[in-house]
Amino acid sequence: MYGIDFGTSNTVVTRREAGVTRVLDLGEGGVIPSLLYFEAGHRPSVGHEAMAEYTAALGRFRGAGNLYTRFRFFQAIKLALKDPLFEGTRLFGERVPVEELAAIFLREVKRRADEASAEPSDCSPAQRRADEDRLVLGRPVVLSPDPVTDKVLEDRFRRAAQLAGFSEVDFVFEPVAASVNFMDRPGQTVLVFDFGGGTLDICVARTRDGGMETLASAGRDLGGYLLNEDISRSRIVRHFGAGGKFRTMTGRELEMPVWITNQVASFYALPLADIQRTRSTVKDLVYDARREDKAKLRGLLEFLDRNLAFSLFDAIDAAKIGLSTAEAARISFEVPPHLAFSEALSRQDFETLVAPRLASARDLVLEALAKAGLEAREVDRVVRVGGSSRIPAFAAMLEGLFPGRVEEGEVFTSIASGLLEAREKGLQVP
Q1: Measuring CA to CA, which of 8, 189, 302, 386 is 20 to 30 A from 278?
Q2: CA 382, CA 384: separation in Å to the nearest integer?
């Protein structure tokens, strides 16, 4: 049986044998990026391999026109899977449901996991194969605030896992899985702050009678991707025409349509969108835009044609991560020959920008405490997991609520490491 933390940014797979959980090396280390690359006539690739092939394709197909017809590169597939409005995308002319897109990624992950766990065991080959078809999959606490929609979206995740080759699928809330790793003292109350790429999830748990009792859990669509989009909307989209003007046939001057430049900031959604519609609209706007906005729109058109969404995301993400250790960072990007920019971003600017997100995170912690019937002073230990939990402002917020009791867990592997043990303890989602 496998435990898979299918994360927005990264994916980790574990197995549990003789009471010991180990993280599997999937050929790229224990943590692989949740990335998927397609090229016509080639097998799909995932993780670091997908990133390398995408980078190579940008150079190999330079000047070849609309590169969306040559290759496709997807990130944050999990966000698409949990979006009730998104059903699928076209891939080289063929409609691919979102469950199948996720299954292609998970199928390759499973293949690598099977190879990584193929050492001799006491099980017969048939028993081992059956065991390898069983899965405990982490899921956010809240996929939708509507219980019916939440169930529909959970079934999407189950269907994707089944298409990937798993015949039996159980779910464990991600922060509950992470909590299992930290319940090491009788009567201890632990709060796990799981802040990843797509969601913020909280679990409050207590050790009791040699086991673990979940007192409360809470979740919200708040993750590192939203923070990157905040940066993009504040500092980047104006370079692609946001706020510009165009003149209608009747001579009226109108604002540039917001939906077009917002797509630049929607890093997971843009590669899945109807690019042809967007390109057609931008082409029309180029002719009617003010002179000072024409180059920006031509840059946007080239940005779309050259499939550069991930490259821009990567530049913004690197700056955001850099601000965790430095007081300032710079976002430099160009789409020659039309535009080039270099935006300075200080940590103070970033913290001002994400202040509403910080307040939302604090509210969620307090909501979880209220559900558990606890005051902050009654929590013995607070553990931060997930890459976004390293952002200083969020760590400081937790320290303010729980002075001297906040620590960092295994940021990228805590969830996966607890999935199988959580199931053993009966903590799976009913």
Answers
A1: 8
A2: 7
